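Might I ask for a little of your time on a matter of protein folding? The record follows directly beneath this note:
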Amino acid sequence: MKYYLLGFLLIWMTSKTNAQIKGVVLRQDSTKTSPIENAKIRLSHSNQGVFSNKDGRFEIILPKYLPDTLIISAMGYLSDSIVVTKNDRFVAFTILLIPVSTKTEIVYQLRKNSHQISKMKTLHVEEIGSGELRKAACCNLSESFETNASVDVNITDAVSGAKKIQLMGLDGVYTQIQLENIPYLRGLESSFGLQSIPGTWIESIQITKGTGNVVNGYESMAGLVNLEMKKPNEMEKFYFNAYQNRFGRSEMNVNAGTKINQKWSTGILGHASSMFGNIDHNMDGFREIPMGDNFALMNRWAFQGKKMEAQFGFNVYQDRKTGGQTTYFREHPNGYGVVMNSRHADVYAKTGFFSKKPMRSFGVVYNLKYQSMNGAFGIRDFQGEEKRAYVNAIYDDILGTSDHKIKVGASFVGLQIRQNVQSLEQLRTEIVPGIFAEYTFTGARLSAVMGARYDQHLTYGGQFSPRIHAKYALTQRADLRITAGKGWRVPNYMIDNISLLANSKTWIAPAEIKPEISWNAGVSIVKDFTILEKNGNISMDLYHTLFQNQLIVDRDAALDAIVFQNLAHSSYSNSFQVEWSYSPRKNFDIRLAYKHLDVKALYDGEMRQQVMIPKNRGFVNLAYRTRNKRWEFDGTCTVYGSSRLPVILQVSGVEQHNEQSPMYPMVNSQITHIYKKWNFYLGGENLTNFKQVNPIVDAQNPFGSSFDANRVWGPIMGWNVYAGVRYALKG
């Protein structure tokens, strides 16, 4: 019997020995490799983790269930991962980590796809990388979606230059925009804020369709756009960009980052732009582009310790615009003028604390913001001021194994906003504490995120928001995703529709503004394929948004008024999109897309398509890069279908009903030459020179009863040519 016990003991000891793997973690110096001490080595699906010793060596016990993923990370280096199986019990690993400072060159060499739908995430997240952003000038955020089929950017009137995004056919106010998971471009920034974020500050953009995670807040109704800015410990040591176009717009951007020591790093991002051209190509007496200037500055700091990480910084900008008739100047106001002055300042901080237990952490996000805005459309004045405080605390842990993760936390929003449009005035104070919980399951083929949050509004009471997302791997190359959830917001009807002051109509608003509440559900399929040994993918998604309550803008109710009304269970949006991507040869990419939008609301007892929203949109993008990587060519063609136009009163006194805009194309292209640290680019926009004829109704009488500068459904500028230069000195 004792021999059996001895044999069993030997087998058990052997199995335990065989289940242990060893390795060494190294770094690449200029001429040799050297060990990395205190590199963290952990297994993704188990709770086990170790640190390398002074010689860079480590030993770790393999879990019972394999395969698993070995993740290796060290401060100042790009993380690496290795899939380990039972066969690796006899392998000694040598892991070479690459410094963060060389990340840009590595990504550039591997040519990572700069536009993709994340395969690893449960939610439908479309990722736009820096390579995609370089395909166009991308002077600011509003121009960063020119090569994207999901997001539309439209000008709201013909005199102020304001732009808004649309996602799934819904106004941008229903899309939650975040700056690294901090709410941004809300309140007074919603109409002009898109032009306040320089494109050269942005590292990547993530577009989430549907309601998103409960951790990020309650305002995501159509989707979420998250902006990842350039990180202090990863950005260029020095970056410079200059831009000039034929209309007189000039721009300059300067970024600089430095690593102070192993723990601290900082970065400064600066921007200045101006538009001095007094442009009136259609000879109607009004500028097509407002004159003005914009200045912005951001300073970021980052701290990375063993048990704590922190980020903090500030962002300030000033934006001044002068539009209207070409005879109107700030110094000499003569005629109809549009004046906008915006000032913004915010500070933020993020702190993260890590437990000795793997994958357990606690983080807090803080943000304070001040925004002021004042201006005028002719004789119609607008004043606004906003103060906002935001705190979000998140506890992150696992239940047993990393297959089961939880996030719980609490948030707080404090807001005071004042808006004044002529005789209408609104002063609102919001105090919104909230709590949330989210569970994530990650299986071999199925992953799911289920969450809920409860927010108690000072004025409107409590709101419960459940959300669920799931992804199922149909095959190794095809994923099915579903999503459903609730979102809500309190509308700021004045600033949300500030461009509607560009006409002679009076505003009629309800005595009580109710919260807007919507339910969103969607399904998407993403499939990779191979044709002639070349890779591609196709994605299809369908989303339905039903409003439990919506504040709609009725531009058909009266010829001399714009009517705001609360609409219950009588408005919705259906969105269908299919996108096909393929690389027929190395360095040559093709993307085709089609989108159909059905966005309706109840107007005068009849369900009608909402105005200024094209039902159909086609999209083609071609990108080519030469073999020597010196030249990049990009071309984009977007075809917009017809949209319903609001009822108007013609100068002759005749009412015009049921008018549809025509279909039109928009063609943009850019050529980039790369020489060492320099990029030289030359581009063209609206190359077909398509222009909307007479975008302003009764432009000769801007103070008359028929004046209307809001019937803009297409480009009002002709063709444009721009040129620029980029210089990047790596750290």
User: Anything to note?
Assistant: The helical segments are 2-18, 103-110, 130-133, 493-496. Residues 1-18, 103-111 have pLDDT under 50 and may be disordered. Residues 2-18 form the longest helix (17 residues). The domain at 224-729 is CATH 2.40.170.20 (Maltoporin; Chain A).
